[in-house]
Amino acid sequence: MTNPITEYTESGILELYILGELTPAEAEEVEQMATQHPAIRQELEVIQENLAQYALAHAVAPPALAKSLFLATVDYLERLKNGEPAATIPLLNEHSRVTDYAEWLNRPDLTLPPGVKDLHIKIIGYTPEVTTAIAWLIDEATNEVHHNEYERFLVVEGTCTVTSGPDLIYLKPGDYYAVPLHTPHAIEVTSEVPCKVVIQRVAV
């Protein structure tokens, strides 16, 4: 004869409870059963631990750019909320000069904090069509492809090499580069100091 406790633990209801998939009445029943039967309470703990281990084993770390952009967006919104006026930023082009962005590059709050290991971004302007930021790249930026926006940047400090399709582009302070659409590209820092750039993404 099947043990009713074993039957209950093998029914799948405990997994559904851990995942939050039960109705309030079903969840209350599980909690009552766990209170009354140590074996059910223990099985719940085992299932929870197994699911946690599975999640850790299969977790995918977000790309450094996604994390940095998210943090930069939060920072920018906080600055606007605290009274920073929305700025009109000059569009980057082949005639742009570092001095065109001195107003933002010289701000003491728009600097690279200590301890950054990959990428740091400070947004300085946003419209639905154009996002402009100051970015510090410590080591490299892995392959990206843009289909719906142009990426342009102007090197402020440091040097880097851009691999854009089959081409290698060597950039130093004052150099401007526009990434072609639909072209895989990556950036490698070639200086001892981080490569600091003004970067702009313009919707197509």
Number of domains: 2
Q: Using the coordinates shown, work out and report the CATH topology of the largest domain.
A: Jelly Rolls
What is the CA-based Rg, rounded? Answer: 26 Å
Q: What is the CATH domain class of the largest domain?
A: Mainly Beta
Indicate the percent of residues in helices: 25-40%
Secondary-structure element sequence? HHHHHHEEEEEEEEE
CATH homologous superfamily heading of the largest domain: Jelly Rolls
Strand arrangement in the largest pleated sheet: 1-2-9-4-7
Q: Tell me the fraction of residues in β-strands, as a range.
A: 25-35%
The count of β-strands is 9
Main sheet record:
5 strands, antiparallel
What is the CATH architecture annotation of the largest domain?
Answer: Sandwich
- Give the overall shape, derived from the CA principal axes: elongated
